[in-house]
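[Automated response] Your request has been received and processed.

Submitted sequence:
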Amino acid sequence: MKTFLNSLLVLFFILPIIGFGQTKVTGTVTDEANALPLPGVNILVKGTTTGASTDFDGNYSITVSQGDILVFSYLGYTTKEITYTGQSPLNATLVQDAGQLDEVVLIGYGSTTKQDATGAVEKVGDEEFNKGAIVAPEQLLAGKSAGVRVTSNSGAPGEGADIRIRGGASLSATNAPLIVVDGLPLDQRGVQGVRGQLNAINPNDIEDFVILKDASATAIYGSRASNGVILITTKKGRTNSPLTFEYDLKASIQDVSDFVDVLNADQFTAIAQTANGFDPSLIGNSNTNWQDEIYSTAVGAIHNLTVSKGYETFNFRVNFNHASQEGVLTGGLYERNALNTSFVKRFLDNDLKLTLTAKGVIDEYDFADGGAIGSAIAFDPTQPVYNPDGSFFQYFGETLAPTNPLFLLENNDNRSQNKRFISNFNVDYKLWFLEGLRFNLNAGLDYSENDGRQFSAASPTNPNAFPFRNLYNGLDRNTALDFYFNYKKDVESIDTNLDLTVGHAYQEFYRRSGGRDTGNTGIFVERMESINRNSLESYFARASFDVSDKYLLSLSYRRDGSSRFSEDNRWSSFPGASVGWKISNEDFMENSFFSNLKLRAGWGVTGQQEIGLNYAFLGLYTPGTGDAAVQIGDEFLATLRPEEFDENLKWEETTQYNVALDFGFFDDRLTGTVDAYYKETEDLLATIPTAAGSNLSDLLLTNVGNTTSRGIEFSLNGKVAQSDNFNWDLGFNITFQDYEITNLNLSGDPDFFIPQGGISGGVGNNIQLWRPGFDPTTFFVFRQVYDNQGNPIEGAYVDVNGDNQITESDRQAYKKATPDAYAGFTSNMSYKNFDFSFTFRGSFGNYMYNNVASDRGNTSTVTNAPGNYYPNAHVSVLDTNFQNQNLFSDLYIQRADFVKLDNISIGYLIPFEKIKLRASFTATNVLTITEYDGLDPEIGNGIDNNFYPRPQQYVLGLNLTF
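Generated structure:
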């Protein structure tokens, strides 16, 4: 609460300073074509550092002297100069620059224009981002791009999110896209000690995301591009821009709006009384909502202080960011302090450009004990939180009983600090001896150190337990160096624009981890330090041709070598090709109602080497732990454990085909894209069971099987209204997808399957399977039998094979967690100084396994506890009257379609002479429409069990620029 109050004080102390300053000249800057005001136009007194910028209505004010020259510059428009000779007001009109209006879009190792892109490439700029007090940058993208699904891993503070582009392509290897920040590819494993590795990137510092979806666009990244690529560009100062200070504050409150449905005190007591040998002394007199006890209102604040300035040949931007977010699970906290800088310097008449970006970040976590969630669900609601003497109520000596969840939260101190430095230095040089030839060099470093400590009190339910202490540390270092030559030339003789690129890249990843803990003995034992290193070396080339501004061809090739594979399999090639036809540029389309019409098609091969293991092709020995030593005489000798390996391990490769149509109507006030894709992955990297004695483990990572994925993406964007006072933009996207395993073993046996999806209840049980012909998230269940009233009959399942008995052979592949379709809908509206926006997301055809209900939705949970206590049950037992667990019944596979109002925001720009002030209010996770009766229909693996709930958030924002 202190953080929140401090943030509000900042608001009240800053507000009185506005309104200072006078202006000698005022005016309005408009678009010459339609007379609309232009916000954000830079106005500079030529030859000085005095400057200003226009507000939302195109108005500006600036102090000038007679004869001064004002320079008006704006992206997409021709720069204009006006000499001041006493005009009042001094208005200016700017003319659109057709060359700049064709938006530049980054692609791998270079850039193109949106008009000339032939691959499935989409740019999402900061004006389109989701609003709110966002800590994880991934959430900026949720619902904004067709084919891209963003799912937060939980509601914990500082939690990251899973990003899936076109559904992923692997089973045991990663399905996360490669993320490149200002030219530096991040380690796909993340870094140690943090919940989300992208948290080191301040969302307020991001200029845009560029998403490369199909293989023709991603093949230039080769071995890491099977799951798509996301290029993040951070903000940098602008040339010839005035000194600008900006302060941005977002103060937030979070709360949990829904709990897991468990029995209340009366319902619980009624079931407990049916137990054989019921002991009333074990029932209390309270009515405790344990979930309400462990969750609390969380406050947070995000502060950004930014200064930027641009000269003729030098510009800079410096940002300080402080983020603090409490967790709704009591005791959780995330804090970030970051300094983000960028410097751009131009030499040799702008032929040489040097760019340095550097981010110094300290991430700090207080991890609340997640075990309290399960304890709150299981704890007897008739018992009090505290005994009369003020101590926590506990089941002392009952080893299997749940622990008081508030005791867990109060007596677990787990803190981690991660210090991280991300820097990138880029040299871009237009070589003097050949016009159109550039040399680009990029050197990057991502370095982090993690230190943490954990102390947990001894379990009060176990008289033999010791307090647990754990000291842990880690280091991650990611270094990259790449360079390329780029040659662009307009060959007039053949009416063709050439764009040729050739280069080399090298990247090394180093990770070290260690520490010591007390284990089960209460005595510190040093853990053996773990060091792992892997590297990639690559050669790449691309050739693009634009013939007559109508016909496009792009060819790319990458040759990758990875230290994770043996010399025989180390190198592989990843080609890509795409074509485009700008139909709207044809003569016969001159008077067409299409303002843009382009047909695209692409093909490419990408790879996968992110398998976690660095030496899975070698026969390695792992030193044993201290408690695995062998005594020989008076000595205890450490052991060596041989590890499983596959000397023939090689690249997983994905071939993808894409065909698309881009279109625009009414001078591009209505634009859209339809993309269709087909992906096939072969030599699938998967961990599979092995035959007894065939290797050194019963599970082995190897190349086996294939998967296929296909889908259609549709996006539509419309400028519904455009006028001086009212503007309204709408965006809609929807993706239809299908993903299945086509082969899973070397013999091609279609009946072979691998159990997946571990669940609570019993030991070693799984509810999903990998099997040819099915999605990897498919559930594996018995088909429930119901009576004439539609009630489930306990233990009665369909005898699928007709052998008059219910066995494992009667379990069936049924439904899946992956959606058939997902969609996003965004609205951005402004009227004069007001703005209003919202984002909806939807997911359709996905199912959820309610593991809390299947595990605890039976009377035995209450009446048959292994001790002198009665644990709570799930409320579903009141409907089913199940006596025992029915873990594999399809009753618990529930439809989980949903439509969510992700965020809604309203803002007002308060106009002042020298200062721009915008106040806003945003609500996130506002509304969920679903038939699913569990906690949340959006859980990544489709298994709902002790999930950290996503809270509702309310954010008060202030942005001050002067």
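Summary generated for your ticket: The longest strand covers residues 468-491. DSSP finds ten helices and 53 strands in the chain.
If you did not submit this request, please reply to this message.
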